[in-house]
Design goal:
By secondary structure, the protein is mainly alpha-helical. Helices cover about 40% and strands about 5% of the residues. It has one domain (about 5-125). It is built from 4 helices and 4 strands. The protein has a two-stranded parallel sheet with strand order 1-4. Strands 2-3 form a two-stranded antiparallel ribbon. The two termini are about 25 Å apart.
Length: about 120
Amino acid sequence: MERHSIEAITDGRESRQFLYVDDCARAIGTAMQHYNELEAVTDISSNQWVTLRQIAALIDQSAPPPLRCPASFPEVQAAARARVAPSVDVPFYRYWQPTVSLADGIARLFAAHTAAHTAKSKDEL
């Protein structure tokens, strides 16, 4: 089987925070329960910075073999970027913390994809 790859248009050194959807839903519910104790603006974040290079490698390593697709990044340094940290609302994090790690979230997404693809294949028989 031919293995495909992705060519990124950035150098991949930008950092982001990713949050699993179940954690996000729990965070919104928690914010609704404690809205009178929180700041007017509350960021919901994992507080875990990861570069696009790291996330691409983690996705490729976690993917089932037929879905693996490594990313290549140009070595040209992109323009400097300012990191904008989320505003950490201390009272909010007293009530809520993410429970799904980035690696576990990716694994869950691939498991759901595989399960859906398997169910679809069975329906087609």
